[in-house]
């Protein structure tokens, strides 16, 4: 065995620094988010004598100020008929703050508005990102009213809102459903107006998961359950949720699961610490029992190559694995979740086990250009040949193998696959000659946890141009080491399944990443052999000579 104590780097503080250190670790701070905050913005109604263009721009500003009093100020820019028919929350289109809105006139003298598109929400709160340079184009017909003032008489339904105002008026929600065995919760990201967050989140939770996720999850909430007549009240940290009589059909431990889904969804609000369920005001007792975990990750050990030896690093010390032989040119390490986790890596054209009990490695898969492996919580190892024409392989340490056909991949080259912590989803990076795709898919399993099939993909990060590595960082987001269209240097981005991309840090010189729980769990390998851990928004040096770090997953 070989022990190597990590060099203790000197920490320095730099306000608002987000780049990877080249000489030593750097710290930065990041303000926490408050899901329950509700920013009130004031907007003025139309001024007398305003031109059609001024009316349209005023309407845009008033719409973005928020849904107070059913968009009462925004409706002042509309005729009575248009106001009565306008449905602002049927969809939400989010436009870029960095691209100036352009107004022109059509042949019929309608005002055409063009804006840079960031993404959109449907009426269920599901977010769809826009591709780079996407444009929102919409038209407004205007006429003078009886007082000679221009008003909008015809417009599209839905809301137009800037990216900045969207962040202030809408809150991210994670609706929680259950894995096939009810052991874990699975998050489904949505977005709801802050002033109606709780009720809308419950309505959508009761309605069920997004279609792409449905084959991998189930719910303890009976069909047709709704928020009850007493709605939802929040007082002193307790959310009292009234539900309809359909819930009476749920008994025993299923009530624990029901409550867990509701509680995990509502406690994302900072002013909710606990949840009580009632049947339209009448107590609904819950039997004792521990609910499922929403993020099954607890192991802080890092599997990492140190001096050509696969080693486990923790608390400043790395210990080489107890193996009878070390495979040549080992890379792309991966580790499972159990107490004595499955550990694997790629050596040449072989996916091999990395035992820690004195035995020799065993070959699980063979083939050219193997996909870097991922180990899921049910101890399946995911890999396969990167150019296998739409086939991904899952194998157990005992050698049981399942070939998963993925028709939508076509002839794409699969660069990586990472299975989520609870095992119900995977993110697949694939590449054609011209385009990189980052896709989320559901994993359907049988009653024993064996994988059966993938669902249809949801594309993430449509502006991502290249991907070097990827890792799960929370229930709904992956960290992507790569570049965006138009960027000049690599960075690490937070890419949600159902939300806008955010930059975590610049990443010049980074070669691979791994992560546990949250941005601050990121671990990066650099081209000069450093292994760095995100710490307090900055970086802490773990090892001076290492590569291929891997946390569980």
Q: What is the secondary structure topology, with strand pairs?
A:
Blueprint: E1 3-5, E2 12-13, E3 26-27, H1 52-64, H2 72-75, H3 80-85, E4 91-95, E5 102-105, E6 111-122, E7 127-129, E8 135-144, E9 150-154, E10 159-162, H4 163-169, E11 170-178, E12 185-193, H5 197-207, E13 227-235, E14 238-243, H6 253-266, E15 274-279, E16 282-283, E17 302-306, E18 309-314, E19 317-320, E20 330-335, E21 343-347, E22 350-353, E23 363-366, E24 374-375, E25 381-383, E26 391-395, E27 401-405, E28 413-419, E29 425-431, E30 436-445, E31 451-454, E32 458-460, E33 464-472, E34 477-484, E35 491-496, E36 502-506, E37 510-514, E38 523-526, E39 531-535, E40 538-543, E41 547-550
Parallel strand pairs: 2-3, 4-10, 14-15
Antiparallel strand pairs: 1-19, 4-6, 5-6, 6-7, 6-8, 8-9, 11-12, 13-14, 15-16, 17-18, 17-41, 18-19, 20-21, 21-22, 22-23, 24-25, 25-26, 26-27, 28-29, 29-30, 30-31, 30-32, 33-34, 34-35, 35-36, 37-38, 38-39, 39-40
Helix pairs in contact: 5-6
**Number of helical segments?**
6
- The amount of helix comes to under 10%
The rough form would be described as globular
Work out the radius of gyration. Answer: 26 Å
> What structural class results from the helix and strand content?
mainly beta
- Tell me the fraction of residues in β-strands, as a range: 35-45%
Residue runs with pLDDT of under 50 for 5 or more positions: 1-18, 22-39
Record field, number of beta strands: 41
Major sheet attributes: 7 strands, mixed
Terminal residue distance = 25 Å
Mean pLDDT across all amino acids? 89
Structure description:
With 553 residues, the protein is mainly β. The chain has six helices and 41 strands. Strands 4, 5, 6, 7, 8, 9 and 10 form a seven-stranded mixed sheet that branches. It has a five-stranded antiparallel sheet with strand order 1-19-18-17-41, with no helix packed on it. Strands 28, 29, 30, 31 and 32 form a five-stranded antiparallel sheet that branches. Strand 38 (523-526) and strand 39 (531-535) form a beta hairpin. Helix 5 packs across helix 6. The protein is globular and about 90 Å long. Residues 1-18 and 22-39 have low confidence and may be disordered.
């Amino acid at each position: 065995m070989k022990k190597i104590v990590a060099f203790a780097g000197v920490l320095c503080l730099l306000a608002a620094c987000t780049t990877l250190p080249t000489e030593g670790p750097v710290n930065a701070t990041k303000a926490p988010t408050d899901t329950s905050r509700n920013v009130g913005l004031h907007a003025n109604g139309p001024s007398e004598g305003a031109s059609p263009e001024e009316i349209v721009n005023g309407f845009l500003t008033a719409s973005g100020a928020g849904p107070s009093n059913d968009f009462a100020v925004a409706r002042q820019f509309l005729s009575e008929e248009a106001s009565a028919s306008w449905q602002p929350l049927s969809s939400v289109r989010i436009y870029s703050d960095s691209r100036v809105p352009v107004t022109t006139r059509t042949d019929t003298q309608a005002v055409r508005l063009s804006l840079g598109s960031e993404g959109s929400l449907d009426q269920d709160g599901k977010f769809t990102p826009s591709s780079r340079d996407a444009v929102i184009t919409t038209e407004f017909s205007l006429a003078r009213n009886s007082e000679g003032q221009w008003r909008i008489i015809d417009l599209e339904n839905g809301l137009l809102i800037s990216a900045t105002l969207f962040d202030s008026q809408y809150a991210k929600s994670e609706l929680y459903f259950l894995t096939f065995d009810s052991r874990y919760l699975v998050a489904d990201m949505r977005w709801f107006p802050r002033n109606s967050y709780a009720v809308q989140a419950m309505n959508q939770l009761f309605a069920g998961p997004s279609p792409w996720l449905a084959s991998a999850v189930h719910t303890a909430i009976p069909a047709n359950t709704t928020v009850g007549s007493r709605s939802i009240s929040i007082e002193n940290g307790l959310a009292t949720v009234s539900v309809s009589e359909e819930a009476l059909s749920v008994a025993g431990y299923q009530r624990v699961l029901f409550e867990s889904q509701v509680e995990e969804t509502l406690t994302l609000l900072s002013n909710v610490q606990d949840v009580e369920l009632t049947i339209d005001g009448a107590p609904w007792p819950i039997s004792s029992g521990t609910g499922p975990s929403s993020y099954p990750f607890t192991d802080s050990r890092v599997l990492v190559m140190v001096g050509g030896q696969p080693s486990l690093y923790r608390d400043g010390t790395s210990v080489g694995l107890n193996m009878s032989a070390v495979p040549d040119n080992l890379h792309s390490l991966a580790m499972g979740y159990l107490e004595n986790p499955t550990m694997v890596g790629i050596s040449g054209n072989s996916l091999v086990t990395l035992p820690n009990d004195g035995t020799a490695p065993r070959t699980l898969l063979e083939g050219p250009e193997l996909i870097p492996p991922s180990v899921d919580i049910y101890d399946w190892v995911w890999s396969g040949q990167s150019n296998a024409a739409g086939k991904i392989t899952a194998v157990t340490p005992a050698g049981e193998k399942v070939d998963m056909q993925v028709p939508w991949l076509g002839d794409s080259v699969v660069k990586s696959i990472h299975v989520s912590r609870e095992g119900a989803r995977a993110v697949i990076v694939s590449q054609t000659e011209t385009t990189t795709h980052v896709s989320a898919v559901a994993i359907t399993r049988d009653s024993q946890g064996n994988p059966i099939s993938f669902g249809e993909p949801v594309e993430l990060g449509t502006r991502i141009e290249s991907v070097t590595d990827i890792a799960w960082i929370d229930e709904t987001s992956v960290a992507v080491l790569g570049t965006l269209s138009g960027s000049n240097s690599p960075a690490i981005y937070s890419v949600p399944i159902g939300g806008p991309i955010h930059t975590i840090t610049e990443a010049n010189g980074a070669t691979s990443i791994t992560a546990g729980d949250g941005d601050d769990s990121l671990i990066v390998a650099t081209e000069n052999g450093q292994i760095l851990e995100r710490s307090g928004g900055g970086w802490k040096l773990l090892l001076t000579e290492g590569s291929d770090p891997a946390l569980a997953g």
